[in-house]
Write a structure and sequence with these properties.
The complex is a heterodimer. Helix content of chain A is 34%, strand content 21%. Chain A is α/β, with parallel strands linked by helices. In chain A, a hairpin with a 2-residue loop joins strand 9 and strand 10. The two termini of chain B are 42 Å apart. Classes of the chains: A alpha/beta, B mainly alpha.
């Protein structure tokens, strides 16, 4: 298990983000489009440059390339490799672990079983439903034995019922594997349902960092200036004379 | 409108069929089989397959990494490098061959090659080099287009899964681009098989030494051996036809895999 610590992380989008995620914690980062949520994930994964420092269990990983950081990244578009079957997608994710073919196959079968997708092992991503792809992508991210799991709005394209079901599954898997997790979303319902702790990012700054039970109070005191209805996606607050920047988050 | 389009199509078909018929009617019908079995044609065929195969292999080894580099990297002067790599495609092969002849004949290059006991000019190796010069830009261009069509986030995803950059290239980029790359390989090979101008300049036209199929056509037309020349010409035509068929087959989406490489949910 890994504790993640960000110190004054900045780049063109982020402005001095300080954040600590405790080991095994599921931290939900909430914010409107363009706030810098996805950028922060890419910075942690080493896919974007930044100033400041990132520590995994106290070790600075600033200079480590993405393939050495040990992050499991679930992209918004999932990015399952279309030329590989489900089994091969997981096999590729485990290649660097050098566990040996038998141990690898056993682990993949167990993972697929746990995620309820064992029967999809030989199927290509193009022939799966949205929910099935989500499960495969999550299984693939976990197959790498990551130190931290980064989830970029993975359920945003699913229908509410399916998304709700998958959120429960995700929470259960996260508890089971005890992986430190950073989940970004613009959906308050999602934050309430999943979070051990919630942060709010606006214009590249982390403005709120609370427990879920403090979330409603933060909303009511307008520390989180959003719609009072939690079943609605996070709406960018309208500030007189000020537009939210359309930065690619 | 239909009539307007029909006329140019008809003219085009007339030209192509006319050329084929012209080549066909002059075939020595009575001696096709004996000519086909002649030692000269067998040699030309063997040499053509060897030189074109080797040239295609080298073109793939050079062109695929170069195409990936050009598709993924941004640097100052990229447009100049891009244009330079494409240049042999627009150059007359004869001119490219003359340039290569001068390069290989220049003192520093010749002395260096001599030191290693390598002889390229007027040998089959020279034919391979000439073909490499002509076909590698085709491979590079195809590879560049193939890699550019792949969403870079697939490569990023592979990196986060613990794959080193070389592994990402070999296990993700290359397989995802394979159908386009394969069509590039076939095109390269076809171009190498039919390469004449540059090969003539660098390897010369010597019977049973540097006699590829196009060189055999040239030599035999020059010496009035119409039978061998036409058989060689038909072998080249059949190769082209085969290549076009293969290209159409490659163009068909793989049965159980998608061909779209942009990320989709």
């Amino acid at each position: 298990m890994t504790t993640i610590c960000l110190e004054k992380v900045s780049n063109a989008v982020l402005q001095g983000v300080d954040l600590t995620i405790d080991e095994g914690e599921l931290f939900v980062l909430l914010g409107p489009s363009g706030a810098g949520k996805s950028t922060l994930l890419q910075v942690i994964a080493g896919l974007l440059p930044c100033s400041g420092h990132i520590f995994f269990n106290g070790d600075c990983i600033d200079l480590q390339p993405p393939h050495q950081r040990g992050v499991g990244y679930l992209f918004q578009d999932l990015l399952l490799f279309p030329h590989l079957t489900v089994f091969q997608n997981l096999q590729l994710a485990m290649a660097h672990l050098k566990a040996g073919r038998r141990a690898e196959n056993l682990k993949i079968s167990r993972l697929l079983d746990r995620f309820g997708i064992l029967d999809l092992a030989d199927r290509y991503p193009a022939r799966m439903s949205g929910g099935e792809k989500q499960r495969v992508a999550l299984a693939r991210a976990i197959a790498t034995d990551p130190r931290i799991l980064l989830l970029d709005e993975p359920f945003s394209s699913l229908d509410p019922e399916n998304a709700n079901h998958l959120r429960s599954e995700l929470k259960a898997h996260q508890r089971h594997f005890r992986i430190t997790t950073l989940f970004v979303t613009h959906n308050l319902t999602e934050a309430r349902q999943l979070a051990d702790r919630v942060g709010v990012i606006q214009k590249g700054r982390l403005t709120v960092n609370v427990n879920p039970n403090e979330l409603e109070r933060a909303v009511s005191t307008e520390a989180i200036p959003v719609s009072k209805r939690f079943d609605e996606p996070y709406a960018a607050p309208f500030v007189q004379g000020e537009q939210w920047p359309a930065m690619g988050s | 409108m239909r009539c307007l389009c029909l006329l140019p199509t008809g003219i085009l078909i007339f030209l192509i069929v006319g050329v084929l018929v012209g080549l066909f009617v002059h075939l020595p019908a009575s001696s096709i089989l004996t000519t086909l079995g002649s030692e000269e044609i067998a040699f030309a065929l063997r040499l053509t397959l060897f030189t074109s195969g080797a040239a295609t292999l080298i073109a793939v080894l050079l062109g695929v990494p170069a195409g990936h580099f050009l598709a993924r990297q941004q640097f100052k002067g990229k447009i100049v490098v891009d244009t330079l790599i494409d240049l042999p495609m627009t150059m007359t092969p004869l001119v490219a061959g003359v340039g290569l002849l001068f390069l290989l004949g220049s003192d520093p290059v010749r002395q260096t090659l001599d030191r290693f006991g390598i002889q390229l000019l007027f040998t089959p190796w020279g034919a391979i080099l000439a073909q490499v010069l002509i076909v590698t830009p085709v491979m590079t261009r195809t590879a560049r287009a193939a890699f550019a069509a792949i969403d870079t986030r697939y490569e990023q995803a592979a990196q986060t899964l613990g794959l080193k950059p070389v592994q990402v290239f070999l296990r993700v980029s290359l397989p995802m681009a394979r159908s386009v790359l394969l069509s590039g390989v076939v095109l390269c090979w076809a171009r190498a098989v039919g390469e004449f101008g540059a090969t003539l300049m660098v390897a010369g036209a010597t019977r049973f030494r540097t006699e590829t199929l196009p060189i055999a056509v040239f030599l035999n037309i020059s010496s009035g051996e119409l039978g061998i020349a036409l058989i060689c010409a038909w072998l080249l035509i059949m190769t082209g036809f085969l290549v076009l068929l293969i290209m159409r087959w490659i163009g068909t989406p793989f049965s159980d895999e998608p061909t779209v490489m942009k990320a989709e949910r």
